[in-house]
Each structure stands twice: as C-alpha cells, then as structure tokens.
C-alpha cells in the first residue's frame, strides 16, 4: 500500500481547521520564586528576550493569523517592564489576553492596572494546602501570596481561575484544596501532571511513576465530582488521562471540541519562548521542537511549513511505538501529550503516563517503572534520561488501590 499523501500546501482559514487559535507565550524567564517543579528553571531573564517592539510585532502576526487568545506565562509575566503594554496591545487587536501567575507580586495596584489594560482572565497557581504549596515553591509565604492575588484580582474585577501541577506530594490534597478554593469565585481550575523537565528533573521526590496514576486518576475523578457539587469547573489538562473508565466523569462537557484527540500543538495551539523561538506547545523542550525564531521567519511561514509544527497534522499511526502502537485507542489518542512522552522516554509516540495503559497492565499483574539513567544538565528546559521497565505488581500494593479498580488477575 502506498504511503498516505501528506499535504504541504499553505493553510486556508475557510477550509483548514488548523489555525493557532490559542497561543501560550512565555514572555520572560525572570521570576520572583524558585519552584522545585519549574520546567524552565525560571529565575533570571534570558539575555535575548524579545524587545517591546518585537513583542508587539508578534501580537500583530498572531492577530492576522486568526488567534483568539494569547496566554502570558513566565517566569512571571508581570516582571516585564512592558507587561501592561503587551496586555493592552493584545486586547486592542481583538484577542483575549489571559495569564498564569504565581501571584506573589500581584498587588492591588497591579491587578487594577491589568484590568484597565484589558486582561480577560488570570489563573493563579495554587499547588496544594499551605505547607505543601510553600514546600513546592521553596518560599515561605508563597501560598499566602497566591491567595492574596486571588483576592486582589477579584476585587479589581478580573475573572480569576486556578491551576495546579500534580506530583507525588500534592495530589492527595486535591479534595481539601477544592474545599479551600470554593471560597473564591473562580471560573475554572485546571490540573495537570508534573513532568520531570528543567528543575523538576532534579526533584526525584516529586516524580510520578506510571503506576501512580492508578491512585491519582481516581483522586482527580472524585475531586471532579466534588467540584461539581461545590460549583467549581475542574478542567483536566491535556496530559491527564487517557480513555480510562472514568473519562466520562473527568471531562464530560469539557472535552477539547476543536481537536478530536492527541496533542493539539500545531493544530489549534502555538507556543513561544521568551527569545522568540516558536513551538507547537510552550511546554515542549527546546531541543527538537523549535520550528524557528520570529526574528528570522514569520510565524505564518513556520506554522504552514515547519515540520516541528506540522508533526501533529501529519500524524501517522506508525509514528507510535511501544505500548501506544498496539493500543486500541492509537489512532484517536495519537500517543497523548507529546511534552510528556518525549520528556519521559526521550521521544514522542509512547506515553507511560496513561491511565488506560496502567489499568491494562494491572489486569495482567504488571506495572511500569521509570528509572533515571542520566541527570539533567541544569539548563533551560533540559531533560533527564529515563529507562522504562515492566515489573510484577506487588500484591500488597494492589490491595491499597481504590476499591473500584479492576481486581488483579
């Protein structure tokens, strides 16, 4: 059988659904915290971050390509001197400007300034109850600062949400965190799995094993039900799942409608690093995933032609390998989150952070383990190396799993 035809023609907005509707933009690596799970090793600004004029041109290009929302990340976006200028320019171009923040410096004055500049919504990172949050952020008082940011933004009239990276030390606190967050009028709460990139690659006490999903996903599912009762919209991130027996509870009406399955990077999303490097998703590593730089190529040219942005559009099931290649959901799931799989096993196409996969292996009496074989080098968005192995599932461990899990063979 001949190879499927791979289309290389320029995109047309009336016929091709692959448009960068959602852009996630790391505008600086400067940060006022030093979180143990930070995938970028944020702290100091990069020497080659985009200037104000360059940032404004990025905004123009994205608007002309049909982008609807630009989410500002860092580091900490508000530490750029031109932060409010960027927010206003996004708003003036008719796009929603949103933001993710740790909130430590979100004063009442800055919250009001963001509102006046036209910010649409801001998500504050809350990573557990107070002691756990402060431990993960490496800063006493960080949790209090995040909660104060929620209050300051609320008082300024900004729509406010929350987000949480789930790891080995905080996921069991989700129900308690849901109760705490119910005190605030948040529009939504996104949870996603921590992946060992950057500073998180050094934090072995935080790493999730693939088999931890057999406890974590039921916890997220129960928290979703609790949030429904509390009036909170809990949104599982794109690396949470996939296709297990609780998927209908986890996502229900919150499935990503514009992208039927797999990674949306290069299909409906685009990511930018602080120096102007362009990727399909901002979370991805720099090495192997950068399509080019806005100082040298237009974003439109990269979007239409760069293989690093086309790989999800040009997906073939034979791009998968290992368990994912033989999975029942292979053609729909497409190996799930590329950031997750490429970080854990060195290349895309085989994702061990999968609930369906963990359940299937458990049914045969097995589980998977990740073992670090090389430490990260200490660079921006660097990755450690891990080996993936299969082992017998200990009977005493199986006995501790949630009671409604399928019994061992």
Keywords:
10-stranded mixed β-sheet, disordered N terminus, alpha/beta, 409 residues, single chain
Structural summary, described in words:
The protein has 409 residues and is an alpha/beta fold. It is 31% helix and 15% strand. The protein contains 15 helices and 12 strands. It has helices at 52-64, 83-92, 108-117, 130-137, 142-156, 174-181, 213-230, 247-250, 299-305, 307-310, 323-326, 330-333, 338-345, 355-362, 395-398, and strands at residues 22-26, 69-73, 96-101, 121-125, 159-166, 189-193, 234-236, 269-272, 277-279, 292-293, 366-374, 385-392. The strands form 2 sheets. Strands 7-6-5-4-3-2-1-8-9-10 form a 10-stranded mixed beta sheet, with helices on one face. A two-stranded antiparallel sheet has the order 11-12. Helix 7 (213-230) links the parallel strand 6 and strand 7 (234-236). The model is unreliable at 1-15 (pLDDT under 50).
Report a brief summary of the structure.
The chain is α/β, with parallel strands linked by helices and 409 residues long.
Write the topology of this structure:
Layout lengths: L21 E5 L25 H13 L4 E5 L9 H10 L3 E6 L6 H10 L3 E5 L4 H8 L4 H15 L2 E8 L7 H8 L7 E5 L19 H18 L3 E3 L10 H4 L18 E4 L4 E3 L12 E2 L5 H7 L1 H4 L12 H4 L3 H4 L4 H8 L9 H8 L3 E9 L10 E8 L2 H4 L11
Strand content: 15-25%
> What portion of residues is helical?
25-40%
Sequence stretches where pLDDT stays below 50 over 5 or more residues: 1-15
| Major pleated sheet | 10 strands, mixed
Widest sheet: strand order?
Answer: 7-6-5-4-3-2-1-8-9-10
Order of helices and strands: EHEHEHEHHEHEHEHEEEHHHHHHEEH
> Which structural class best describes the helix and strand composition?
alpha/beta
Rough outline: globular
The total strand number stands at: 12
**Number of separate helices:** 15
Distance between the termini: 40 Å
Radius of gyration: 21 Å
How confident is the prediction overall: mean pLDDT? 92
